[in-house]
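Supplementary Note 3. Input sequence used for the single-chain structure prediction.
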Amino acid sequence: MTLRAILTGTGSALPRTRVSNAELADRVDTSDEWIVERTGIRFRHIAEPDETTATLGAAAAKEALAAAGLEAADIGLIIVATATPDNTFPASATKVQALIGAPDCIAFDVAAVCSGFLYAVSVADSMLRTGAARHALVIGSETFSRILDWEDRTTCVLFGDGAGAVVLSAKHVDDDQGILATRLHAEGKYGDMLYVDGGPSTTGTVGHVRMQGREVFRHAVTNLASVLGEVMTEIGLSPDQIDWIVPHQANKRIIDATAKKLGLPAERVVLTVDQHANTSAASVPLALDLAMRDGRIKRGDLVVLEAMGGGFTWGAAVLRV
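The predicted structure, written as discrete structure tokens, is reproduced below.
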């Protein structure tokens, strides 16, 4: 018997306001055709003032707990992956803890931007297998609309708000169920290609997202294909044995190019970027929850999660659901 972190529940939450490309074009110099052609995005959700990273994360967490058949009191670890916390401190994870009514437990945030959920999953996997907790909530939650420059059409059309959550539970299994491998990377020398031009220690302001789109695209395709190969090699399987890839939903062209590089058919890739845009750390758990709930991903399927974000950071995880 092997102790592993098992996926026992998923959940998601989206802000009430849904914005189409056509609606966005009313306030930005852009068009539906321009956005779809370059990104595949058609809609995004934008948080209202009463919707925050913590409230969205808590809503997703409650769905995941219900799917897992657990109560908030069962949770011993809460990790929130976010680049847009409610406050500089306290951690948004502690706010989620209070909102869902969880008693004393471990709670902290992880900041790795779009790769944050993969980083958080890897940390939770390690902590569960060492006995730090029995059940963990791993949440990706973002309100990226708060840090967008709405006059910069090269960035503001790309992002949306939302949250996704999973419950991971430590269980002894005699098969290959659960998280089988994770791989994480970072290359800080590329930090000026995707960043926010503000922060408490530098400008004392929140700042806005800035990006060198072509360079990010080039690095994303190369790094994501590479890290997917790494996790598959670690477990001794080939890409053609993957049932589903749940990629970071940044850009349909990046997703398509990565799948092509690995020789994977489009019908085995979960795609939600058209409906949600890039929700940063929330994009992978949002897509995973959708595919679990609509029946595409079934128990026993081999699933690979992958993402790359500012830093640069990138990573992948493979699990048997």
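The first strand starts at residue 2 and ends at 13. Residues 2-173 form a domain with the Peroxisomal Thiolase; Chain A, domain 1 fold (CATH 3.40.47.10).
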